[in-house]
């Protein structure tokens, strides 16, 4: 699972947005706003990381202390990946 080619993140006015370039821009006209966590998930997927690796990265970044913290982060990662997948931004 990886982000399709042609979608990039840019920081605009202090906010992160995803825009389409090249061939991808023929089918997608707009921007997707991302918060910091969503940006990290997007970048993890773009780098080819697994959901577990992304969860571990976010747990370290957010200093997750308990198994419940880690579980909450894992659920957030899965939820965001589902949104990205449902929007058609992922390829296998």
How do the strands and helices of this protein lay out in sequence?
Elements: E1 2-3, E2 7-12, E3 15-20, E4 31-34, H1 36-46, H2 51-61, H3 67-86, E5 90-91
Antiparallel strand pairs: 1-5, 2-3, 3-4
What this model shows, in words?
This protein has 92 residues and is an alpha+beta fold. The protein is built from three helices and five strands. The chain has helices spanning 36-46, 51-61, 67-86; strands at residues 2-3, 7-12, 15-20, 31-34, 90-91. The strands form two sheets. A three-stranded antiparallel sheet has the order 2-3-4. Strand 2 and strand 3 form a beta hairpin. The protein is globular and about 45 Å long. The N and C termini lie close together (4 Å).
Notable traits:
globular; 46% helix; three-stranded antiparallel beta sheet; 92 residues; 3 helices; alpha+beta
Low-confidence runs: none
**Residue share in helix:** 40-55%
Strand order of the largest sheet: 2-3-4
What characterizes the major β-sheet? 3 strands, antiparallel
Instruction: Note the total helix count.
Output: 3
Structural class: alpha+beta
Shape: globular
User: What is the end-to-end distance?
Assistant: 4 Å
Radius of gyration: 14 Å
Mean of pLDDT: 93
Q: In short, what is this structure?
A:
This protein is an alpha+beta fold and 92 residues long. It is 46% helix and 22% strand.
């Amino acid at each position: 699972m990886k982000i399709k080619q042609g979608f990039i993140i840019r920081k605009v006015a202090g906010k992160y947005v995803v825009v389409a370039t090249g061939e991808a821009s023929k089918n997608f006209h707009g921007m997707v706003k991302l918060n910091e966590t969503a940006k990290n998930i997007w970048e993890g997927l773009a780098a080819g990381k697994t959901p577990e690796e992304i969860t571990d990265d976010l747990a370290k970044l957010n200093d997750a202390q308990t198994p419940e913290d880690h579980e909450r982060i894992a659920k957030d990662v899965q939820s965001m990946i589902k949104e990205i997948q449902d929007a058609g931004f992922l390829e296998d």
